[in-house]
Amino acid sequence: MPVDAFAHTFAVAAAPATVYAHLADPRSYVGLSPLVVAVRDVQTDGDQVTYVALERFRFYTNPIRVTMTLDPAAPSVVSAVVSPGRVRLRAAVTLTPSGNGTEVTESITVESPSLLRRYVLRQARAVQLKRAAELTRRMAA
Description:
By secondary structure, the protein is α+β, with helices and mostly antiparallel strands. The chain is about 25% helix and about 50% strand. The protein has helices at about 15-25, 30, 115-140, and strands at about 5-10, 35-45, 50-55, 60-70, 75-85, 85-100, 100-110.
């Protein structure tokens, strides 16, 4: 199966600890990721958090299983997503102090069947950019 990778770096007007706390809470992803409309079955076990996120597309709701690995010392959040259709996505977010705020880098690796590849890549990149804009807005408030 094809594997694709891409990254995006942007700045937010909040300290790394504030950004980390927000990203480490699965409930924050409702609206932060534009497709996520609900989060359920949240369970924490040490540095791992698992949950089911419900993504709403035009004609259906897609339940995705997410495992977040948290590292407050870095600080970083790595999310491994298992989605129907044999799509696997890994998003690693690293936070670096920058002036009075934080530089956020999100690196995404996605594995998808050839038939779905273009659609999956287009969606993943669009969601990444919208998530960056929403996180920037939330951290400015």
